[in-house]
Predict the structure.
Amino acid sequence: MSLWRASDPLLLASRSAARLDMLRNAGLRVEARPVELDERAVEDEAVRSGAAPDDVARVLAREKALAASRLVPGRVVLGADQTLAVAGGVLHKPADLDAARDQLRKLSGRAHVLHSGVAVVRDEEVLFEDVDSARLVMRDLSEDFLDSYLAEAGPQVISSVGAYQIEGHGVQLFEAVEGSHFTILGLPLLKVLAYFRSEGWVT
């Protein structure tokens, strides 16, 4: 049963299966509408303007939603993005399994912060935007463990910044997590649902 009350389904400006599943599992009618966006160029411009990692996540979410909104007038579009901040730097999705191993080595034994930004747009007007953060502490990882983890988790680890999916084998990497599980998966879902209820779009 759908709890979504708007006339048309929500459009998700993302290829993320995790985000799509979260929204559908929450009872929303939603369709994926990914867009082509030079994320690194958007990020570089935001950083040059002084944006911190959490602001970068918000900007990327907004730009994705705006890009999709230009293609579908009148529709409610949700954009989302995530940044990972560690030791004064930012990590991106690894290009291959060797890069994934390098990221895990960098995260091993230390804390990092995931910032998940979201924006809701209609007719190129930003109706809502926010960001939520979660702090994760990774265990000290041996090379033997990394061998086993990467062999078991497989190439899908390169689809996530940090080279883990905490909803699967990636949970084995951590000793402590502070923050919303939804935020870690890439969407501050509770904030989004609260906004949708305020608009009468969700029962």
